[in-house]
Design goal:
elongated
Length: about 110
């Protein structure tokens, strides 16, 4: 079984979220904004918000396609659904790793 690097996964999720929203990727941000002032809780909340936004966008596209709106496209709708699913699965894996780390720490002898 392969190990998942949580930090790498989070940075990839942020980069994909920024790319999907048209924002500047995290790698292009100045070094001062990546400093120790940013805590994990804030980053995790932002990641959850980005995943929720992707899921809402995918649902809007599905609804528009079902209604037969002129701008609705099955290919774009399918891709949006797959992106939302992949982002959600990544978030669930990060959560699972966090729960596993918490359990490991709690079971350590004092």
């Amino acid at each position: 079984m392969s190990q998942i690097d949580v930090n790498n996964l989070l940075s990839q999720m942020r980069a994909l979220g920024a790319q999907a929203s048209g924002a500047m990727p995290a790698a292009a941000l100045p070094a001062a904004s990546k400093g120790p002032g940013v805590d994990f809780g804030t980053l995790f909340k932002q990641s959850i918000g980005a995943v929720a936004s992707q899921q809402n966008d995918a649902q809007r596209q599905v609804t528009a396609f079902e209604r037969g709106d002129p701008g609705a496209d099955i290919v774009k709708t399918s891709i949006a659904g797959q992106k939302a699913d992949l982002a959600f699965r990544g978030l669930v894996e990060v959560r699972n790793k966090l729960v596993d780390a918490y359990t490991t720490i709690m079971n350590m002898p004092v």
